[in-house]
Queue: 2 jobs
Job 1
Amino acid sequence: MTPHRVFLTGGTGYIGSRLAAILSARGHEVTALARKESQHNLPPNCRAFLGNALDGDSYATAVAGANTFVHLIGVSHPSPAKARQFVEIDLKSAQEAIRVAAAAGICHFIYLSVAQPAPVMHAYIEARKAGEQLLRASGLNATVLRPWYVLGPGHRWPSVLLPLYAIAKLIPNTRESAQRLEPVTLRQMLSALEAAVEDPPTGVRVLEATYIRRL
């Protein structure tokens, strides 16, 4: 396994703080974008770089030394009421990250998207789809991960729906959508991100929830 120099956005968040610790423990050099008030959420062996996720120029100098960019920025607890924030935060931060990564010659860009299509959360899906389109247009080698929901501490309420997913997977007309939209666990998500960092593709690779769950 070749150690990578990783720049991570969203590194102080629910998934990112755990991923930073895992990657650092595996010998990767991790620099995480952080705000001053949240940098304490980073593990001690991860370097914090203070900047603004909505302004790529504020952290471009830190990206220049990396070969892998992991973008995990997103509005917390997404809901249909946050449609405007999906554009102003999720999509804007992705646009800035992709722009800076392309200018820096990043070898591998990892983007956390969302399962699609889906019967709900259309504004959220559209913002993530637009991020994927920007990534494809950039020419960067990339991995796109598409979970629908990540089950973990403080994020367990969809567990009650798992029996319904199991039934839907037995019915031919609903099997494909159930497999696409069934939640993944936090451990599976972290394993998929770790594997993506350590196995960069040529071109754009899309990892659906069915792949993530296998990990």
Note: The domain at 5-150+184-214 is CATH 3.40.50.720 (Rossmann fold).
Job 2
Amino acid sequence: MAKFKFRLATLLRLCEVARDERREQLARAYQADEIIEQDRALVADERRALQRRNRVASAPGQLDVDRLLEGRRYELVLQSREQQLAQQHQDVQAEIERRRLALVDANRQVRVLETLREKQLDHHRREENRREIKQLDETAGRRAAQEDDE
């Protein structure tokens, strides 16, 4: 029986490597998004803590104006950081979608080649079976002819 050889095996391997690279790129984008989300949570926590401190500092009694001004400045810094992280989150989400679509395309290319390989392998097996049956029929026909001659 002749061994099956898929002529596009090299292309299939290249597509699989490209697909695996797309997976890694998508995973890295998800990791970046996770880091941004953690930073956003930290900034939000810091902002809530600052607001609590500002409420305490502005309670009735003696006011520390410098402390209140410093708190307000820091709150503006945190607000700016939140906006920056929100923009980064949007950018990373767009990149995630781009990389996800690239992975979908790479998966599709691999599936197309795998389907083609399976079809060619099935065709090869059917041809080999047909050849074997033909060879067995010829052998049986020769034996029958030899038995008739005897």
Note: The chain has one domain: 9-149.
